Amino acid sequence: MQELAQHEGAEASIVNVEAVMQQVAEHKGCGTSGGSGKASCGSAAGSGDLPTEIWEKVKNHPCYSEEAHHHYARMHVAVAPACNIQCNYCNRKYDCANESRPGVVSEKLTPEQAAKKVLAVASTIPQMTVLGIAGPGDPLANPEKTFKTFELIAKTAPDIKLCLSTNGLALPDHVDTIAGFNVDHVTITINMVDPEVGAKIYPWVFWKHKRYTGVEAAKLLTDRQLQGLEMLTERGILCKVNSVMIPGVNDRHLVEVNKAVKSRGAFLHNIMPLISAPEHGTVFGLNGQRGPTAQELKALQDSCEGEMNMMRHCRQCRADAVGLLGEDRSAEFTTEKIMAMDVDYDLESRKAYQAKVEEERVAKVAAKQEELETLAGESSDIKLLIAVATKGSGLINEHFGHAKEFQVYELSTGGAKFVGHRRVDLYCQGGYGDEDSLETVIRAINDCHAVFVAKIGGCPKSDLIKAGIEPVDQFAHEFIEKSAIAWFKNYLDKVNSGEIQHIERGDAEIRQGALTAAA
Amino acid sequence: MTLKIVASQCTSCSACEAECPNVAISEKNGTFVINPKKCTECIGHFDAPQCAAVCPVDDTCIIDNAYPRYQPAQ
Ligand code: SF4
Ligand code: SF4
Ligand code: SF4
User: Fold this and answer.
1) Where are the domains of chain B?
2) B54 CB near a chain A CB, below 8 Å?
3) Any idea where the Radical SAM core domain is (chain A) (predicted)?
4) How many Å apart are CA A478 and CA A141, to the nearest integer?
5) Ligand 2 pocket test: which of B33, B35, B40 has the largest number of ligand atoms within 8 Å of its C-beta?
6) Which tens digits make up the pLDDT trace of A287-330?
7) Architecture per CATH, B2-64
8) pTM value?
C-alpha cells in the first residue's frame, strides 16, 4: 500500500522547499510515517510524556515529531513499485493514493540511483535526516530492492535514519532483516482488525503464490499485520500505524483499531482522511465513496487521543517528495541531474548545521513557555481554531497568497495545540488574486476564527473578514505558538469585557488530491 | 499457449516479473512483456498463472491465443 505520507503539517519543520530540497516524503505506500508523540501529536514541542528512549528516536524525525517537522526534512525514494495486495483507495498507475498524491507518477529508481539521490539531497540539504521507502508499491513486496537501497545508504551516510512503510502482509518474514539494518521506524497501514470490514477495503491479497479474496483475504492481512507489529515492538523497533478513514466503512471501527495497535506497542497512530475523487480512478473514487470532512476527522482523532499518540501533521506527501514536509523539491533532483552530480557527503558540516537547528528549537520552546505563563490564571471554556501561514522553523513567515497550506492550531487556556494541516494550494498565482481560489481557501479554513500571516493584500483581507475569519498580520515573522497565545489572551479579554461575542464556527472541507509543489 | 501482457494496461509495477517461475517476464521499453518461449502458463508450478494473480490491473495478463496451448512434457 502506499500511503501517502500524509503528514499534515507539523512535523519537522520544513525547510524551504525551494531553498533546500526536501525529499522527505514518507513513503507512500503503505506505510506512512508516524507522527510525533503524544502530546497531541502535534504541537507539543517537547517530549511530553513519551518515554525517553522513544523521544530520543523520534525527536528529529519530521514525520513523527510535529515539532521536528518544522526543522528537519525527510525524503522518500520510490524503488519498490510492486505490491502484494489491492486497496480500493489505490490506483497503481500512479503513486499510492493513500500516501501520496493520486495522479502523480513518481520516478522509479534502481537501488543505486536511489542511494545516489539520497546522498546528493543530503549534501545539499543538511536538514535531511530521514530516508523512507514507501510506495508506490509495498517495500516488502520488493525486499531485494528495498534492502539493497538501505545497505548502500547505511554505508556512506550512517547518520541518516532509515524508515519503511508497509501494508504488513509480508512483514513477519522480514522483521529480522529490518532489525539488522537498524531501521528504527516502521509504518504499517492498518485500516481494520475485523475481516468483515476489511473485505470492503481490500478486494484481494496475493500470498504464497495464491490470490485470496473477500473475508479470507482480509483475515490473512489483519493476522499478518498484527503479528508483524508485535514482532517489531518486541525487538524495540518503533512502529507507527497509519489508518485511512473511510466514512461509513471503517470510521467507527478505527477506535477498535486504535485499541488493537496500542495494546501491541505501536507508539503512534496516524488517522488520515481518504483521498478519493473520480479522476483518480480508484474503486472508491469511482463508486462515489466520500472522504471525511475536517470536523469528522478531528472528532475521530480526538476520540482516539486519550488512548495514544495521534499524529496530526501528516500531509500525505508523495513518495518521492524531497524536502521538509509540505515542501517538495523533487524537480531539483531528477535522476538525470543527480547522476550528473558530484556528491561530496560531508558528515561534519551536517552535524554543525543540525546543532544550529537545535538552538532554534530551544528558543522557540522557551518563547512559547514564557507566553503561556501569561495565560496562567485565566479560565475559560472557549476553544477555537486558527490557521497559520508558515514556511517552517515554527514562524509565521508566509504571505497569505503564497500559502499552499495552513497549519491549524487549537487554542484554549491550556495553550496552543497543533491539530492538522489544511491544503489550499496556490491561491495567488504571480501576485494576482483570483477570486475563486480565495473561496477555496476560505472553505478550507472555514472552521477557524483567525488566520495568521506574514502579509496579506487588502482584497482578501476584506473577504476574510466578511467570512468571519480575522486576518492577523501583526505577528509577522514571530514564533507561531507564542503569537497565537498572545492573540488568544487578547481575544479572551475582549470576550470578557463584552467587546466581542464568541461564536462557534462551521466545518471545513478537506482538499482532495495530494500535495504537490507549486507548478 | 502462453500468457501475454496487454501493454496499454500495464502499470509497469514489476510485480509479475518476480513471481514468474520460468523467468519469462522482463521489462522492454518501459512496459513488461512475456517471452512466449518460456511461459508455461505456470503449469507444473502453481495452480494459477502467477502473473495474472499478482497483477493489479484486471485482464492485463491474459491468454495469448496466437499460440497453441502449452503441453507439459509427459
Ligand atoms: S494497493 Fe498496494 S500500493 Fe496501493 S495503497 Fe494498497 S498497499 Fe499501497
Ligand atoms: S503464466 Fe506463469 S509462466 Fe507464464 S508468464 Fe505468467 S507467471 Fe510466467
Ligand atoms: S503485474 Fe501487471 S501491471 Fe505490473 S508489470 Fe506485470 S503486467 Fe504490468
Assistant:
1) 2-64
2) yes
3) 69-318
4) 46
5) B40
6) 888 888 888 888 888 877 654 555 444 444 433 344 444 455 66
7) 2-Layer Sandwich (3.30)
8) 0.69
